[in-house]
């Protein structure tokens, strides 16, 4: 079984640095756990290093949050109208854009005598979820005018760096600040939370301050991978090897690599590439797309490279490596965002904590 090794000391450093940076900037940090989910070791490490608010993007089959969290988390995906009963039972706050869904949330809250808050998401240029800025004030008015309103309006939020690759700049950041002030001035409705995401904002914070109404930042990838996403830059103050994926060598052979006479597609439907031909040293490792996203792995040994993947094997070329491999050896990799997500979610990957 392949392993995902988590270095708890390095994770604690990353969390502590990011949480302290957020606090110094006047921001509440929300720890986003899209990959680790309800991993109690990781959650405890986050709590011990200053994180109090947690965001999850998937609806669980049953409520597991009460066992490890002191308060209900935030649902940071748009909720399905068919899962509202679970939403209000498991989460204290959710991100929303559609009035029909918000009205349904209110109906369920009345029927079940529960409380729940919403944050209205605004599209500030990344073209993913969000009400257009020119429609935000009117949408907040409609929320406020819901009859027998049981839900609370917490504020507004936005997301960058996920769909259109939009990075923070003064213009798209100022949109939220101006909208928060406009809602309070025109409608007399308090905007207590102005939330921005995600880790792409860490680059901005190194040399800028966010406007005063923005008081929450949602971070996940930077904590686990030590990088600034969208820009694909390592953050100079963070470890980028908190997570290391480890594969077991099953076979090593020197094989002659020639261009196929009758080329076809590989097991996953892709056209194979042959960057190197002739005699090559190849190793078969004990993982494939069932275990992680192999294309997102980078061998710690820079002389090696992944040349082929399928459901449960990864083939690696190590001809240019000074390392001599044999069956039973382990090969270690750094991870990108996709490989991290799939490794955490795979039932075939063993999670190992390193203290």
Describe this structure in words.
This protein is α/β, with parallel strands linked by helices and 355 residues long. It has two domains: 7-234, TIM Barrel, CATH 3.20.20; 245-354, no CATH class. The chain is 26% helix and 26% strand. The protein contains nine helices and 18 strands. It has helices spanning 8-24, 40-48, 84-90, 99-112, 136-144, 170-187, 201-205, 221-225, 337-345, and strands at 3-7, 28-32, 53-56, 74-75, 93-96, 117-121, 152-159, 193-197, 216-219, 227-228, 233-234, 243-257, 278-285, 297-299, 305-309, 314-317, 330-335, 350-354. Strands 1, 12, 13, 14, 15, 16, 17 and 18 form an eight-stranded mixed beta sheet that branches. The radius of gyration is 23 Å and the shape is elongated. The model has no long low-confidence stretch (mean pLDDT 95).
